[in-house]
Automatic annotation (TrEMBL):
The protein's required cofactors: Mn(2+); Co(2+); Fe(2+); a divalent metal cation
Pathway, per record: Carbohydrate degradation
Binding-site positions, substrate: S7, H65, G141, F142, G143, G144, D174, G175, G176, G196, S197
Cofactor remark from the record: Binds 1 divalent metal cation per subunit.
Catalytic residue positions: D34 (proton acceptor), D174 (proton donor)
EC number: 5.1.3.1
Keyword line: Carbohydrate metabolism, Cobalt, Isomerase, Manganese, Metal-binding, Zinc
Gene name of the encoded protein: rpe
Protein name stated in the entry: Ribulose-phosphate 3-epimerase
Annotated a divalent metal cation binding sites: H32, D34, H65, D174
Function: Catalyzes the reversible epimerization of D-ribulose 5-phosphate to D-xylulose 5-phosphate.
GO biological process, one term: pentose-phosphate shunt
Length: 228
């Protein structure tokens, strides 16, 4: 089942609760929270207090994408704040298996993220323990960047590996997901679609989300018969 994980990075922070509700009305079913530390990526965004503030605003799962150098140090704080899913970058985790275990031990669903230049094969050993793999289709740090088309092959390869290994982790994609790019990633096997700038827009968020989901579901291999 394809889902829209709307990235609040592109929302109006002065009205965050209303923004989340508008995206939810449009069918968004996961709140994607981009956590940036100014070190791993050249930008700074939110931390656990914003997750804590969002928690009573919605019943949707809070999916926190940690773009930080030292994720282990922040795992307890995100769990405490109410995060449901937590993903860490392969590129910063010296002991990736341990970090993913730590996320599970704190009651969150663990995810692992790879940058555009990181090969899927670097994840093979940890695939059995993750709930999801996030394939970046832009270099992380900023919203509104251009989609990198080679991400599609990485998603397709990951979907094939999942089948061969008999696993059922989910595949998430993030960066430049818009009406023009969404079908290609869904056809390749992505099910959790992170989108920020294609969703949030003053007065149009609900309709933008609906449009993107409609296109995604029309391209989904598991779409109900007769509804394409
Ligand atoms: O992780 C991110 C940047 O690091 C953002 O979530 C991502 O880029 C989504 O933004 P957009 O849909 O505007 O491309």
């Amino acid at each position: 089942m394809v889902e829209l994980a709307f990235s609040i990075l592109a929302s109006d922070f002065a009205h965050l609760a209303d923004e989340v509700k508008a995206a939810e009305r449009g069918g968004g079913s996961i709140v994607h929270v981009d956590v940036m530390d100014g070190h791993f990526v050249p930008n700074i965004t939110f931390g656990p207090p914003v997750v804590q503030a969002l928690r009573p605003v919605t019943n949707l799962p809070l999916d926190c994408h940690l773009m930080v150098e030292n994720p282990d140090e922040f795992i307890p704080a995100f769990a405490e704040a109410g995060a449901d899913l937590l993903s860490v970058h392969q590129e910063v985790c010296r002991h990736l298996h341990r970090t993913l275990q730590l996320i599970s031990d704190h009651g969150m669903l663990p995810g692992v993220v790879i940058n555009p230049a990181t090969p899927v094969d670097t994840l093979i050993e940890v695939l059995p323990m993750v709930h999801y793999v996030l394939v970046m289709s832009v270099n992380p740090g900023f919203g509104g960047q251009k989609f990198l088309p080679f991400a599609v092959e990485k998603i397709a390869y990951l979907a094939e590996l999942r089948k061969q290994m008999g696993l059922n982790f989910r595949i998430e994609v993030d960066g430049g997901i818009a009406p023009e790019t969404v079908a290609s990633v869904v056809q390749a096997g992505a099910e959790m679609l992170v989108a920020g700038s294609a969703v949030f827009s003053k007065g149009k968020t609900e309709q933008n989300a609906k449009k993107l989901l409609k296109l995604a579901r029309a391209a989904a291999p598991d779409k109900p018969a007769g509804k394409g």
